[in-house]
């Protein structure tokens, strides 16, 4: 990519462009612990009771899937939601973005990533040449957890069938997962974010390539890590190029 263009993109993400190149490419040290949407949090407690079985949505159309989500009452958080947040964007997208769960603004508007973190996500997508309207965006949970707490394991299990069907219907070439919680849930792992970044993963069952980066809400609190997020986005583009079908 032309250096000037890249500079403009990095500016859109809020990355200081005067950083010497060596420091952009330096070894990534292990990230410090953070409280939410961040990295290296304590691993989730393994639930003592068996997790619920995800609803079988494997034959549902987009419309039926949306209706199933809207009427879902499998978790207690369905009682506190304003509305479900299904997902948005291009249903034939080459890139899919998966986050954790709706926040207050998403719960109000019924669309994922519309708050401050959503604005940064939009800039990140623009920076990598994939404007928001070209991708499909969804969350692990379709209902807002009260006070933006982390999703519980049983809630993620209850919602898994919905997300899996969205992935199957979109059939993206690449999934960009933002944040530890979403990554651990999608990839069914307890590995910390620091170990998940910088590698190509695959969705269990579908085998869709996955790249993991920081949650934009975390980047708003820790803007110095935007440079590492930029490296993740460049890596995502590489993985995408490896898997994209050449035009006929
Ligand atoms: N954070 C998420 O993970 N998803 C949203 O939709 C909004 C904020």
TrEMBL record:
It is an enzyme of class 3 (hydrolase). It catalyses: Hydrolyzes single-stranded DNA or mismatched double-stranded DNA and polynucleotides, releasing free uracil. The keyword Iron-sulfur applies. Gene3D superfamilies: Uracil-DNA glycosylase-like domain. CDD domains: UDG-F4_TTUDGA_SPO1dp_like. SMART domains: UDG (SM00986), UreE_C (SM00987). Residues 86-234 form the Uracil-DNA glycosylase-like domain. The keyword Metal-binding applies. It holds the Pfam family UDG. GO terms for molecular function: 4 iron, 4 sulfur cluster binding; metal ion binding; uracil DNA N-glycosylase activity. It comes from the Bacteria. Keywords: 4Fe-4S, DNA damage, DNA repair, Hydrolase, Iron, Iron-sulfur, Metal-binding. GO terms for biological process: DNA repair. Its EC number is 3.2.2.27. PANTHER family: TYPE-4 URACIL-DNA GLYCOSYLASE (PTHR33693:SF1), TYPE-5 URACIL-DNA GLYCOSYLASE (PTHR33693). Belongs to the uracil-DNA glycosylase (UDG) superfamily. Type 4 (UDGa) family. This is Type-4 uracil-DNA glycosylase.
């Amino acid at each position: 990519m032309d250096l000037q263009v890249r500079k403009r993109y990095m500016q859109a993400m809020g990355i200081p462009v005067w950083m010497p190149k060596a420091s952009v490419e330096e070894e990534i040290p292990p990230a410090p612990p953070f409280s939410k949407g961040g990295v290296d949090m304590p691993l989730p407690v393994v639930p003592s009771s068996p997790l619920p079985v995800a609803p079988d949505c494997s034959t549902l159309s987009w419309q039926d899937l949306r209706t199933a989500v809207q009427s879902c009452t499998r978790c207690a958080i369905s009682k506190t939601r304003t509305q479900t947040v299904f997902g948005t964007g291009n249903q034939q997208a080459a890139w899919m973005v998966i986050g954790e769960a709706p926040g207050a603004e998403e719960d109000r508007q019924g669309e994922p990533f519309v708050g401050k973190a959503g604005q940064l996500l939009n800039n990140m997508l623009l920076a990598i040449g994939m404007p928001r309207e070209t991708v499909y965006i969804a969350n692990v949970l379709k209902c807002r957890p009260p006070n933006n707490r982390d999703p519980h394991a049983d809630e993620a299990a209850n919602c898994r069938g919905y997300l899996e069907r969205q992935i199957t219907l979109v059939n993206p070439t690449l999934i960009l997962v933002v944040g530890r919680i979403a990554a651990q849930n999608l990839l069914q792992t307890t590995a910390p974010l620091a170990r998940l970044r910088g590698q190509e993963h695959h969705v269990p069952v579908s085998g869709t390539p996955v790249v993991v980066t920081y949650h934009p809400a975390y980047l708003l609190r820790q803007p110095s890590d935007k440079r590492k997020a930029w490296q993740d986005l460049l890596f995502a583009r590489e993985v995408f190029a490896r898997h994209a079908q050449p035009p006929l």
